[in-house]
Every structure is written in C-alpha cells, then in structure tokens.
Amino acid sequence: MINNSLTGKKHANHLWNSFKKQAYLQAFVLIGILFLFVFSYIPMIGLIIAFKDYVLTDGVKGFFTSPWVGLKYFMEFFTEVDSGMIIRNTFGISILKVIFTFPVPIIFAIMISEVGPLKYKKVVQTASYLPHFISWVVVYGLVFSFFSNDGVINSALKSLNIIDKSLPFLTDPSKFWPLAVISDAWKEFGWWAIIFIAAIVGIDPSIYEAAQIDGASRLQKIRYVTLPGIQGTICVVLILTLGNLLGGGMSGSNFEQSLLLGNNLNREASEILQTHILKVGLVQLRYSYAAAVGMLQSVISVVMIFGSNFIIKKLSGTGLY
Amino acid sequence: MKNIKNEDRIFKIINYTFLTLLTFLTIYPFYYILIISLNSGIDASRGGIYFFPRVLTFENYEKILSDSKWINALGVSVFRTVVGTILSVFFTSIVAYGLSHKTLVFRKFYYSIIIFSMYFSGGLIPYYVLLKSLGITNTVWVYIIPLLLNSFLVLIMISFFNEISPSLRESAYIDGANDLRIFLQIILPISKPVLATAVLFTAVNHWNSWIDSAYFVSKPGLRTMSYLMMEIINRSQASNMGDLQSAFRSTTSVTTRSIQSAVIIVSTVPILLSYPFLQKYFVKGIMLGSVKE
C-alpha cells in the first residue's frame, strides 16, 4: 500500500516535471484545446436548450438559467410540422447519393488507369477535380444557366423541336432529387477518384503480368486484379460516406444544395433537416425548437458513423478504428 | 487470343470516348459561362450561343468593376481569404506541431478532444448563440476567428511533422533554442508541402463561403462576393419564374444574366489560376488525410 502511493506520487511528480519541460509545446496545444472548448464544446453544451425555453438575450448564460420544458420541442417537430416530408427528403437524397454518386469515382479511376498516353491522362484528371474547388454558389449559377426555363438545355431541346414548352427542371419537385444527385456527382467524382487512382497505382504490377500470361482480357484484369486490389480503399471511403450520410455523403453537400437549389416551388422535395433548422432558427428566431431538431441531426450522425464502421468491419474486416 | 484482342480494342474505344465526353462535361459549363460573360447581355438573351460569343463586349466586366457594391464585396472576400488563411494555417500548424511530439504529456487526452469535436457538433443554433455572445456577429471577425483551427488539417499536419527527423530538433535544443524558435526557424521552412496543402484548402474554403455572410452578418458593407453572387442568381431565378423584371435591362445591353456570368468568372479565375500549381501538394495531402483518418 505505502509502496503504491509512493510510486503514484513519484509518477505524478515525474509527469509534472516533463510537463514543465514541455512548457512551450503544452502551451501550443492548450491554446488549440481552449479554442475547441469555446467553438465546439460550448455549442455542444448549448444543445441543452433543446429541452428549455431559451431566449437569445440571455446569451451563453441562458443555456443554464432558462426554464426546462422537457420534450416539448421534439414533440412539436413530430406532431405539428411536416416532419415526415423533411425526414424523407433528408434520407432520400442521402441514400440516392450513396447509390449513384459513390460508384462514379471508382469507375472513373479504373477507366483512367487503363489509359496509356500520359498527357491525355493528365488533362482528363486535372479537369476532373476542378469542380471540387468551385463553390456551390458557382455550381448553382452553372445549374441555373443550363437548366432554367431559358437555359442551355431547354433552348437546345426547343431549337431541335424535341419539346415546345420549357421543362421546369428547377421548380418541379420531382426533378430536385435527380438534380441534387447529378450535380453532386459532377462536382466531386474527380476529387474522390484521386484516392482510388492512388490505390490502383499501388497494386503490384507482377499480378497484372501474371494475368497477361494467363491470357486475361482487360475486363478480366479489372474484375480479378484491380477491383480486389482496391477493395480496402473502397471500404474506407464507404465508411466515411455512410458516416456522413445525413450531410450528403463524401462531400457533405446536402445543406448547400438544398439551400441554393431549393425554392418555394420544389420545397416538398428539397427541404431537409438542416435547411429546416436554419429557417426556423435564424429566420423565425425559434432557437429552442431549432436546437431540438439540430440535436436529432447530430445524434443520428454519430450513430451513423459508428454504425457504418461497425457493420463494414464485420463484413469485410476493414474499419477505421 | 484473337477474341481477347477484339474485346480489348472495343474496351479501348469505349474508354476513350467515355473519358473524353466526361472531360467535355466538366469543362464546357465553365466555357459556356465565359462566352456568355463576354457577350452583350441583350443579344445573349435571344439564345443560340453555344460555342463562340456573338457580340463580343467587356461591358459586363466594366459594369461590375464600376459598381462599388461589387468592389467592396471583392475586397471583403480578398481580406478574409488572405488574413483568414495566414492566421488559420499558422495557428493550425503550431497546434499540430505541439501534438506531433510523441512524448507530450496528456497527448492521448488532447487527441480525443480533437477527434470527438470532429464527429459530434452542437449544430447551428448553439453555435450562432455563441458567436452572438462573443460579439463577433456583424463584424469581419466572424469570418476569421471561428475558422482559425481546422481539426482535419491538424491531423494531416501531425502526420507530416512525424516524418521530420527528431535529430533536427535535438541538435537545436542543444544549441539552446526553445520550441517556439525551432518551430518558426526550422520546422516551418521545411514544411512547405503540407503548408501549401493547408493554404489551398483554407483559402478555397474562405473564398467560397457564403452562409456565414448570409446569416451571421447583416451590414451590406460586410457581404462577401460569394454571397452577392448567390443573391444575383436568386434574382434571375425569380425573374425567370416571372416574379420580377431584370434589374439592369432598361439602361444598357447588360442583363442580370450576363452580369451573373461575369461574376461567376471573376470568382472562379483565382481558383483556376492557383490550383494547377498546387496540385502536386494537395494530392499528397488528401492521401495522407484519408489514410490517417
């Protein structure tokens, strides 16, 4: 016993001594931790206003002093708002993105890896990830120029006499989901392909040579060498994608897309949890209610991250942790 | 054998066609906006322009550059991008440098604080309350201070700093340098690749942001370029839906649509010009990030 507490004390002393020796390094890190405490952890604590009647004039102090109201605002979301539509859109758009935009960078990476001439390869790849760096506002402008009633696509179709009245791509609710999925795939496929291309480059070339000797065609090589070779990378990216399912997959684009491409006419297909939170919270100034909806979003997200990691680890043996 | 050769040839044809088409689909929208921005607005609204400007003019650009609202927004965007990026990359790298020391006391604890903040967030509303309480809403600092530390970049930088030989630091210690001096004079100069990656990500993020400008700021003089661009596209959207007439149409040959195209080009060009040079760095950066995450 005595011995134990002595070594414990010694240990603490030792720790303190190394801490002092690292004064500069500790200071560097602690400033960062302090920053995170203010800008990440105080808002997390602030989530308790979801269970309270909070008024903005109370500031951060009001997180603690405002009166409790229990689950009032959660009930309100599920009973008084068109929450069914919002939840359907949030999950619908996200799941469509996993199904349709997740495979695009993989296919693109495989195809570009089959290309011989370096210069051609470089031009195609450089062009492919340009849209990743462009803001969603610019993409909104491009989408508008191409898909609006007098946009490129409608006027081209009209001058070819395929249609005689403009197709309302931007206002028809049934067109919002495809528009969101396609614009997301267009913007991000080249960027995410970088990882897969690197994984393909990392495959041992002697395996391809062996397949060549066995008389494999290119498609067979893709099927039996390339795909198994990048399976681990596919799993990791899939976990990241599913983990951010509600945000809109790999690139987390749902919020900005719905905010920009959504309007009063296509609202029944474009309103998602995040836009609902923004409108109710920052426009109608109903903070507690909006925080309650925000809490739902945060909790579902965390469950998705650990859930998808768990499931994929079980299935394939590849996980993040 | 013959069969396989034929199959491979067909594959090759399909592959090249597909990739060329895809590249066209990526480039053409930007090219189209460029020619519209260089064409007279009234003329463009007649339609039929697909590959070359019909009535070449710089009027759209002149209009933007003579409008104090746009000049001011451009200034705000440049300010937040330059100042915000310098401060954020410096702050992020110094935190990462501290954390990269394997012998750091409480290292695991600091790590878990960072990782947890990446997965769980309080969401928009408490965040807004915080910004409001700090008194930085409606000032230019609301663009800069909240983005000072980027946890994702901290992780990327740690993996870079870990690869720097410890002997470099040890010899500096022996010479009597402290960690701040070592960081500034030895570590930063040899970390150009990872700093370039961080600068690119941070600068693009600053340049493209508009939600903070839309909701955390209400003074017109503090609006960013991206925000005004969003506003003008919304306006053409509204006029497209028959709600209101195009604002510029009466005075010159400039239309909302042509102005909008010129603005898109102005905000895209800086990114277009910088990213090919930084390519070699950020490709490495994203690889590190995805592997370590």
Give me the secondary-structure topology:
The complex is a heterodimer of chains A (321) and B (293).
Chain A: H1 2-21, H2 23-46, H3 62-65, H4 72-80, H5 83-100, H6 103-113, H7 118-129, H8 136-147, H9 152-159, H10 173-201, H11 205-213, H12 218-229, H13 231-243, H14 254-261, H15 267-270, H16 273-283, H17 287-316
Helix pairs in contact in A: 4-17, 5-10, 6-10, 7-10, 13-17, 16-17
Chain B: H1 2-37, H2 41-44, H3 59-65, H4 68-99, H5 107-119, H6 124-133, H7 141-144, H8 151-161, H9 166-174, H10 179-190, H11 192-208, H12 211-215, H13 225-240, H14 256-292
Helix pairs in contact in B: 1-14, 3-14, 4-8, 4-11, 8-14, 11-14, 13-14
What does it look like?
The complex is a heterodimer of chains A (321) and B (293). By secondary structure, chain A is mostly helical. Chain A has 17 helices and no strands. The radius of gyration of chain A is 26 Å and the shape is flat. Chain B is mainly alpha-helical. Chain B has 14 helices and no strands. Chain B is globular. The two termini of chain B are 45 Å apart. At the A-B interface, helix 1, helix 2, helix 6, helix 7 and helix 8 of A face helix 1, helix 4, helix 5, helix 6 and helix 10 of B.
Residue-averaged pLDDT of chain B: 88
Proportion of residues in β-strands of chain A: under 5%
Fill in the CATH topology of chain B: MetI-like fold
Number of strands of chain B: 0
- In total, the number of strands of chain A is 0
Mean pLDDT of chain A: 90
Order of helices and strands of chain B: HHHHHHHHHHHHHH
As a whole number of angstroms, the C-alpha radius of gyration of chain A is 26 Å
Instruction: Please count the helical segments of chain A.
Output: 17
Order of helices and strands of chain A: HHHHHHHHHHHHHHHHH
Oligomer category:
heterodimer
The CATH architecture of chain B can be given as Orthogonal Bundle
Morphology of chain B: globular
Content-based structural category of chain B: mainly alpha
User: What is the CATH H-level superfamily of the largest domain in chain A?
Assistant: MetI-like
